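Action item from last week, closing it out:
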Amino acid sequence: MQDFFSSIRSYESAMRSALGEGIVEADLAYKHELLAENPFFFLRGTCWRWAESASTLCPELTGATAVPSVGDAHAGNFGLWRDADLRLVWGINDYDEAAITPWPLDLVRLCASLVISGFADANDIAKAALAGYAEGLAAPAPFVLERDHRWLRADLVATRHGRARFWRRLEKAATVEPTDDVRDALLAALPGDTRAIRFIARRAGVGSLGKPRIIAIGEHRGGPVVAEAKAVLPSCWIDGRSPGLAERMASGPWRSPDPRLVYGAKLVVRRLAPNSHKLDFDEAAPRHKHRLIGAMAADIAAVHAGNEALQNAIATELTAMERRWLASAAARVARWTETEFRSWRTHFRSSNEPSAREKRSVTPW
């Protein structure tokens, strides 16, 4: 396994080659700052490192059945959207790193992210995740928040303050001029009679920083509408890439997909709204923590369970696995991540990157 500093240089060099003049260098510098902020941001921002190291860190899991996987499963990769029937749905909402990988790896990364965040003890996290995954595998289904899962809806639906903050950020953002392909994609995503459209750049997430994100916001029949276009790169899982996999997974048999989410060859386009956001698990009610872990794992199971053959194969392997396999693997990956984080933080704080001297919020939105 190469050292982290060689790894990040190689990854960012590949990004620059793929994006050319489109790469947002200021956001990439900001990403360096976030990686030095805390271990959870570091994990979120280094999926490529997980992809190149998973087989070394978890060799006992690499022989498991390979399935369509999220590839970048972590506690911040769950969010809300509305389906074709206008129902509010919660679950995995980012398939940028989708790949065919051994099924346990998504669970390990999810649980490692929760261990790092201090959400709960590794054993408790693994226990809740395994129970939720088994339930999701036996009866896969999307989390539709209309009649069921009211506990989850109560924790996630945007508050009045959250709605005001969402629109205020868009109103304050500076206008930019998009490239023709981005403009065309965004205009196609908005209603045909949308007026007063303006385009703004958005800084969001951690792992995707450096990729250009452009938002179109306009007025449509009495209120605002918003769409976002983000550049797409091939999955960092070099050995597990599959053309069109992200779109197939997002609209799989146990999904209730967002009809406005479109994965193209170069762009992923989606509509945005105050309720179309990532899960901030710090906001989850304490009494729901273990329930939330189970729900995350159950949704991953619904993604993995593409057909009956895969369900049966995973269930057979899951039953045969040693009792503490997930707690052990998640704790191992968490320790490794924290070690690499400390090394990066020391390097970053001693560097002369201008962003390291700026005083500003480091919370991406």
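Closing note: The longest helix spans residues 325-349.
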